[in-house]
Amino acid sequence: MPREVEHRSVVVVGGGPAGLAAAIAAYEAGETDVLILERDTQLGGILNQCIHNGFGLHTFKEELTGPEYAARFVARADELGIERRLGTMVVDISNDRVVTTVSPDRGISHIKAGAVVLAMGCRERPRGALATPGYRPAGIYSAGTAQRLVNIEGQMPGREVVILGSGDIGLIMARRMTFEGAHVQCVAEIMPYSGGLKRNIVQCLDDFGIPLLLSHTVTRIEGKQRVEAVWIAEVDEHMKPVPGTEVRYPCDTLLLSVGLLPENELSRAAGVQINPVTRGPVVNESLETSIPGVFACGNVLHVHDLVDYVSEEAASAGTAAARYAQGLSGEASTSVTLVAKDGVRYTVPSTIDPQRMGEQLTVRFRVGNVYRDHYVSVYFDDERVQHRKKRVMAPGEMEQVTLKRADLLARPELSTITIKLEEE
Description:
The structure is a single chain. By secondary structure, the chain is of the alpha/beta class. It folds into three domains: about 1-125 and about 260-330, 3-Layer(bba) Sandwich (FAD/NAD(P)-binding domain), CATH 3.50.50; about 125-260, FAD/NAD(P)-binding domain (3-Layer(bba) Sandwich); about 330-424, Sandwich (Immunoglobulin-like), CATH 2.60.40. It is about 20% helix and about 30% strand. It contains eight helices and 24 strands. It has helices at about 15-30, 65-80, 145-155, 170-180, 200-205, 265-270, 305-325, 405-410; strands spanning about 5-15, 35, 85, 90-95, 100-105, 105-120, 120-125, 140, 160-165, 185-190, 210-215, 215-220, 230-235, 245-250, 255, 260, 295, 335-340, 350, 360-365, 370-380, 385-395, 400-405, 415-420. The strands form six sheets. Strands 1, 2, 3, 4, 5, 6 and 17 form a seven-stranded mixed beta sheet that branches. A hairpin with a 3-residue loop joins strand 5 (about 100-105) and strand 6 (about 105-120). Helix 1 (about 15-30) packs parallel to helix 2, helix 1 crosses helix 7 (about 305-325) and helix 3 (about 145-155) packs across helix 4.
């Protein structure tokens, strides 16, 4: 262990919506020695640039903008006197919970934590991951970068816009760019379904007459100094462009909304086990990772569709971290494995200890395609215990089931819980 190590009970890495909710919950669970580490110069994370409404309907029962939603959590953290260090980059987390940071005022610091909460959020997939032919001209932005330019910097990325990818940020930016006087020609999506919420398709595209081209992708980018045009083609079931379907769209801006990746470089370096589907940590019922005393929540765990769910999940992680730091979490006794199959891509958590879970547990998951009139079924080993019909399920919207502790304890031999989709 490094010399001159500071000791703290709970260290939260990230000061966005997940980090704030986790820190507040840890404090309210009786662990007042909580420290938030945030690389930006203010708390709130990505919400600070999300000036559209639609936040807080579950948490506060009213519609708020992103900054308003964040401000309520910042105000609560201020009220509790939770310490935060801004402009502080975490560069390493060891498997014995020593957090190494660097900042202009403190230089390199080492903090030994009783418990660590990972709340680093996610980042956008860059253009380099797409392998789209063409030069590297100006005018190609990720949707989140364009959002920051417009909403924070007061700069317009361009006037004739094409958007590739129908994730929620791309859909919201289609509306935002239209509000600012730009002409959004279309949103192209390589999948046969949208990656965003249904409400965003309606409010951001349909209401403004912006076409959504499903099973389409950008095949070529024209322009050397600045984007001059993009070519969009239909794709087949193997995601390959269909010859003869290419259409040229003259434009000066291409926004990319092609997926979000959890920020888990620190997690991997620490030795945390990563789920290959979510690209976030594998966690148990307490949102504890494979390293004891290290918890994960929010978009670093799996990409959420609503920030309200981020806050709810983070509060659970913060409470569990406080209990661990206080020595109250108890030893693991049994572990029930959750299995996702037949249309269900993954579950969070991946394992459950019935002895340590609360009275009930929310298991969240996403489906792998658009399903109509299917049932979400839960099996305890081979016995079906839940069977709930859903009219429509899509990959862009998270689903959930609720498990009760009493039901699990009533089956002491239970080894596997399977969540899957069934037609009848």
